[in-house]
Design goal:
The protein has helices spanning 82-92, 96-105, 153-168, 174-179, 199-205, and strands spanning 2-8, 14-25, 30-35, 42-47, 55-58, 63-68, 113-118, 123-127, 134-135, 139-143, 215-226, 230-237, 244-250. It is an alpha+beta fold.
Length: 254
């Protein structure tokens, strides 16, 4: 599962500030963030099993992220990769609204998901478990493994801390933004969601930062775009020999 906080047109210096945890099985192979060899325009980590990514940006200032929608049962015997949708958006750079409408037409081929896609001009959201694609207005949003701004404890808590940090800081430090999502504090049972999985598992998945023996938070990523369309992309890995990587570049829209 995953957790994302983002501010769209809410900061004096940055049109976009986004921080995200990627939660995944430890044995699923993945590459650290970097410029893709086969698509040098794309900056992202990479799922080495299916070939896509969970979050990334490109040199034109397009960005996207996907989270799973938590469900008790898998509903498809043969499914397409949700991460492939992020990779294709970043390589092709279509209008975000049109792209999400295209995904909506093919939504039956994908497990439950949330998809965020944008560029310097607009930001869109779509879930194949919650209605049509919609253009997001200026605001601060939280997203985990249900619909956008669902009041899960981890979403509410992280959004409060994230909002406080960006409103008190003229130039937010990516490392401090990442720290917002590192809390391992548990959630009282009465505040846990009911997604159809056992309560014992809901407890383990309740914190912002997850660390189980086989599954957990593997990286935290920050993406920031200023009003001149310059991008900062930072990633912190929690795996052995992991470190913080920072990329800063002017987009082709600058």
């Amino acid at each position: 599962m995953c957790l994302i906080n983002l501010a769209w047109q809410q900061h004096k210096h940055f049109r976009l500030i986004m921080v995200a945890n990627r939660d995944e099985f430890y044995d699923r192979p993945a590459a650290r963030a970097g410029w893709w060899e086969d698509h040098p325009n794309v900056l992202a980590g990479r799922d080495l099993k299916a070939g896509g990514t969970w979050m990334g940006a490109n040199r034109q200032g397009y960005f996207a992220a996907v989270t799973n929608f938590r469900e008790a049962k898998r509903t498809l015997e043969q499914e397409h990769s949700r991460g492939e949708l992020v990779g294709r958006y970043l390589t092709e750079a279509p209008p975000p609204g049109s792209y999400l409408l295209e995904i909506e037409q093919k939504s039956a081929f994908y497990q439950g998901m949330n998809f965020l896609a944008g560029n310097a001009e607009e930001l869109w959201y779509y879930s194949n478990r919650g209605g049509a694609p919609c253009k997001l207005e200026s605001g601060i949003y939280g997203l985990s493994n249900h619909l956008l701004d669902t009041s899960w404890a981890k979403v509410v808590r992280s959004k409060v801390a994230f909002t406080r940090l960006i409103r008190d800081t003229a130039f937010p430090d990516p490392a401090l933004l990442m720290d917002v999502l590192t809390s391992t504090e548990g959630v009282p049972d009465e505040q846990l969601p009911n997604t159809g999985i056992p309560i014992e598992l809901e407890r383990l998945l309740g914190p912002m930062f997850i660390r189980l023996h086989h599954y957990g938070t593997r990286v935290t990523t920050v993406l920031m775009m200023d009003y001149d369309n310059n991008l900062i992309f930072a990633e912190r890995s929690y795996e052995p020999k992991g470190e913080m990587l920072v990329y800063s570049f002017a987009t082709e829209m600058s």
